[in-house]
Amino acid sequence: MMLDELNLYEKSEAREFLAQLRAELDGFLEGMKSAEAISLKPHRNITSIVFLGVGGSGIVGDLLSDITAKRRDLPIICHKDYSLPPYLTKDVLAVAVSYSGNTAETLSAIVEAYDAGLPMFGITSGGLMEKICKKMGIPIVKVRDGLLPRMAVPHMLGAAVSVLTNAGLIKMSADELRNAVENARRAQESVEVHVGLESNIAKQVANQIYNKVTFIYSHGLLSSVGYRLKCQLNENAKMLAVNQCLPEILHNDIEGWSPALANCLAVVVLRHKDEPLAVKEALDRMEVFLGEQLGISVSRIVGDGNDDATKILSSMVICDYVSFYTAMMRGVNPIRVDRIKSMREGIISNSRLLEQVAKRFEVKP
C-alpha cells in the first residue's frame, strides 16, 4: 500500500503541492471575497456571457457554466482562442480570465472585445492584463499570486461566481456558495493522506489508473469536472487521459473497446445521486459491460451533496487528489510542467503578440 506510506509525502515537491491542494476550498471563498468590491454596471442589457481563457484559467468558465446551469436565464460561452467568436454582439458580457495576466491568447481576445465595445471584466493575479484593465477602466478582480495556475482555479472560480451573482446575472446567494464549500470539505477530508487506501476513493482510483491511459466518462453536471480531471492528470501526473461525455459515448466510443485493452486502458466514471433515470441506466449498463464483460478497470467517483455547487466542488476536490496520488504512484513531480513551458516559450509569435497588445494600450509589457 504505497500510498499509505506517509513518508512518501515528505518530498519537497509533494509538500508544496499538497499545501496548495489543501487550500483549494479556502481559495474559492477567498476569490469570492476578492470580488466583493467589483460592481458591474453594464450600459445595456446582457443577453449572454463569454469566458475568454485557456488552460487552467479556461476551465473556470466550464465549471461556472455547470454550477449555474439551473440558476441563470442566459447562455454561457467558453471560448479558448486568440480571437472572439464572429457572432458576438454588443450585449455580450466578456469575462477575461488569465491567472498570470500574460496569456497571449486571452490578451489578444481582450483587444478584440475592447475594440468591439463589449462590457467586460477581468480576473488575474497581475501581469499585463492587470495593467491594461487598470488603465482602460475595465473592472478587475485580483486574486492571490504565487500559486500554480491550475491550483488557482478555485480562487478564480469563486471570483467569477461572486461578480456575476452580485450583478444579478446568476441567481445564487453568497450563503449558498459558502455552504457548498463547507459541505465539500467532507469530501476533502475523506481523501486526505492519513486516510488509508481501503477507505480512500482517491487513492483507490490512482492505484487503478497510474500505469494506464485513462478514459474519463461523465454526463451533464459533472462534464466540466471530467475535463478538469483530464487536465490534472496531464499536468500533475504526466500521463495521457481522454475526457468524453454521455450520451455521445454510447454512440461511438463503446464500439472501440475490447478485452485486449484491459492491460493498457482504464476508465473513471463520474456520477452523482440525482442523475436522470436514462443517464443512470446508461452509465450502470456501460460500467457492467466494460468492467464485467470486457475486464476493463472501471472506477467510480460520486459527487456528494444536495445541490449542484456541492456536487461539483466535492467531485473536483476528489479528482484533484486523484491526480496528486497518481503523480506519487508514477514517481513524478506534480509541480513542474516543463513541456508546457518549453512549448509556449518556443512560440515566438506569442511574444510578439504581447508586445503588440502592450503597444496598443500604451502600457509597459
Helix content: 40-55%
How many separate domains? 2
CATH superfamily of the largest domain: Glucose-6-phosphate isomerase like protein, domain 1
Could you tell me the number of beta strands?
A: 9
* Net shape: globular
Would you list the SSEs in sequence order as H and E?
Answer: HHEHEEHEHEHHHEHEEHEHHH
**What percentage of the residues does DSSP assign to strands (E)?**
5-15%
How would you summarize this macromolecular structure in one to three sentences?
48% of the residues lie in helices and 14% in strands.
Overview of the molecule:
With 365 residues, this protein is an alpha/beta fold. The chain folds into two domains: 35-172 and 337-361, Glucose-6-phosphate isomerase like protein, domain 1 (Rossmann fold), CATH 3.40.50.10490; 195-330, Rossmann fold (3-Layer(aba) Sandwich). Helices cover 48% and strands 14% of the residues. The chain contains 13 helices and nine strands. The protein has helices at 12-22, 24-34, 55-67, 104-115, 127-136, 153-166, 174-190, 201-209, 223-237, 277-293, 308-330, 338-345, 348-361, and strands at 48-52, 76-79, 92-98, 120-124, 140-142, 213-219, 241-246, 265-272, 297-303. It has a five-stranded parallel beta sheet, with helices on both faces. It has a four-stranded parallel beta sheet with strand order 7-6-8-9, with helices on both faces. Helix 9 (223-237) links the parallel strand 6 (213-219) and strand 7 (241-246). Helix 1 packs antiparallel against helix 11, helix 2 (24-34) packs antiparallel against helix 7 (174-190) and helix 3 (55-67) packs antiparallel against helix 9. It is globular, with a radius of gyration of 21 Å. It starts with 11 loop residues before the first helix and ends with a helix.
